[in-house]
Specification:
Oligomer: single chain
Strand content: 15-25%
CATH superfamily of the largest domain: Vaccinia Virus protein VP39
Number of helices: 10
Shape: globular
Structural class: alpha/beta
Distance between the termini: 26 Å
Order of helices and strands: EEEHEHHEEEEHEEEHEHEEHEEEHEHEH
Strand order of the largest sheet: 9-5-6-4-1-17-18-19
Number of strands: 19
Radius of gyration: 26 Å
CATH architecture of the largest domain: 3-Layer(aba) Sandwich
Largest sheet: 8 strands, mixed
Helix content: 10-25%
């Protein structure tokens, strides 16, 4: 079963991707022959109501939301019962040009020819469409648990020339769960403690000037205690904000010979008279990926929500074992005046003692079978960022992409940038694991017509059901294994 889903679908009314394979059939019946008319302009099947077109080019936001929910409905079938899904999504504006107000010429021309212009029902010119909010509510109605909204803040966003609003510098990451209880490792992504906005490096937290009354018992107990003992030793809980900088994709592919060049290799090529780089085959037509998110965004999502070890027999994931040390008592009590023990001198809201945690190991299900890494699925693989990050962290992954050009680019990027560590990364500890890997980039040519049946076929091909992990006879997937720790 898939342990975690991390993906970012094409945003609504933002850009147009090249390639005829981008035209997909959404909704309707799978056994329908689909009649879209003879004029070539109709996108709705007259028999079953299916819609044909590129994801993100729907007539209205609600149809786009329905298609994303359709994909995530199938993702729930292959996701473990304790699995988590992350959806990276951004908003769009209702514009007068075409359907979005964006400046991409080809897209605006195609929309103007279709005569699709705002306002749509419920939206006005220059309205924010609230795509993430619509998606969250629809996914919630479909059965998902919406657990968190994480802000992905960009330190160096694209500049904007807007005169009547602020430039957009963040996107939303929806954290979705299949059930109310799921696998989550908060200790793997803890952040450094801060004090008044600065990371503290002083050894002493309580200085003499900060003691209210040095003559009191409380002041004597408080004075001179190391500051780091008053907080969790691993850091504070991760906030719902991830701040990153842009990372260039760094790869370009010739459209004629399909040769992929790295950034340095590309710059060494000679230029033509019109200042375009010339491939060794003589072509000057290039393609690359224009919507790449950084690996720094994906890394904490994988560390916190994809287990490094899963039992190959029962499918149970290993969880962190934390050694607990009781902290001091309530402020003002005899125990607190005596100095208490290491840690916070207070109780939680239930009256229990606070504890400082230290990782001492990982749980064992007792099956005696081999451990395998958790599997991450990205149904919109694109440039392969999720795959590269998962590989570098020692996790297995599956990618689905309809564009053969993007599959070629992602495969070359994975080959060059991904380096499988001998042990999976868990931030605070290392355990024995496998160096083998399960990797697969699925192309539309290998499966059926739409992306949703792709995910259905993925479950069938790998022998996945809703209850556990089964042995697969598929030859293109290698199940990694390792000896269980003695």
């Amino acid at each position: 079963m898939v342990s975690c889903v991390i993906t970012s679908p094409p945003y609504w009314a933002l850009r147009k991707y090249n390639g005829s394979e981008q035209e997909q059939i959404w909704g309707g019946r799978r056994d329908c022959q689909h009649n879209f008319g003879n004029d070539g302009k109709s996108r709705t099947c007259t028999s079953c109501g299916a819609w044909k077109g590129q994801l993100g080019h729907e007539e209205n936001p609600q149809l786009y939301v329905d298609h994303i929910v359709e994909v995530f409905h199938e993702l729930r079938r292959v996701l473990r019962s304790d699995g988590v899904a992350y959806l990276i999504i951004a908003d769009s504006y209702a514009g007068a040009k075409g359907r979005s107000g964006q400046k991409e010429h080809n897209y605006q021309v195609s929309q103007a020819e279709d005569g699709k212009r705002f306002p749509q029902k419920g939206l006005k010119h220059k309205d924010l469409c609230l795509i993430p909010e619509r998606l969250a509510i629809s996914l919630q109605n479909d059965g998902w648990y919406v657990r968190s909204r994480i802000a992905w803040v960009k330190r160096n966003p694209l500049p904007g020339s807007y005169k009547d609003r602020r430039s957009s510098s963040w996107e939303l990451v929806l954290m979705l769960a299949k059930s109310s209880h799921y696998w989550y490792d908060d200790d793997a992504i803890r952040e450094p403690h801060t004090w008044y906005g600065r990371v503290q490096k002083r050894k002493d937290f309580y200085m003499p000037s900060e003691v209210d009354d040095e003559t009191s018992q409380a002041g004597k107990a408080r004075h001179g205690r190391p500051r780091y003992t008053d907080f969790h030793p691993g850091g504070r809980n991760a906030r719902d904000v991830i701040v990153t900088v842009a990372e260039p994709f760094g790869y370009d592919m010739c459209r004629k010979c399909k040769k992929v060049y790295g950034r340095k290799e590309y710059r060494r090529l000679r230029k033509s008279e019109d200042k375009h780089r010339v491939c060794i085959c003589g072509s000057t037509e290039w393609t690359s990926h224009c919507a790449v998110f950084p690996t720094a965004l994906v890394r904490p999502l994988i560390l916190s929500s994809c287990p490094a070890w899963v039992c190959s027999r029962c499918g149970k994931a290993r969880t962190r074992i934390v050694e607990s040390t009781p902290c001091g008592g309530i402020r003002g009590t005899e125990r607190w005046r005596a100095g208490g023990t290491v840690g916070k001198p207070q109780r939680d809201h239930n009256g229990k003692w606070d504890y400082d945690g230290k990782t001492v190991g990982w749980t064992d299900c007792g099956c005696g079978a081999d451990w395998i890494p958790g599997i991450i699925l990205d149904p919109f693989a694109g440039s392969g960022t999720v795959a590269v990050t998962a590989e570098n962290l020692g996790r297995d992954w599956l990618g689905i992409e309809v564009s053969q050009d993007y599959v070629t680019l992602a495969a070359e990027r994975i080959r060059r940038d991904a380096k499988r560590p001998p042990l999976p990364t868990t931030e605070n500890t290392t355990m024995q694991s496998s160096s083998e890997k399960t990797t697969s980039v699925w192309c539309a040519e290998q499966c059926r017509q739409t992306r949703v049946p792709l995910i259905v076929d993925l479950a069938v091909a790998h022998g996945i059901d809703d209850y556990g992990l089964q042995q697969s006879d598929s030859s293109d997937i290698v199940s990694p294994s390792t000896k269980r720790e003695k």
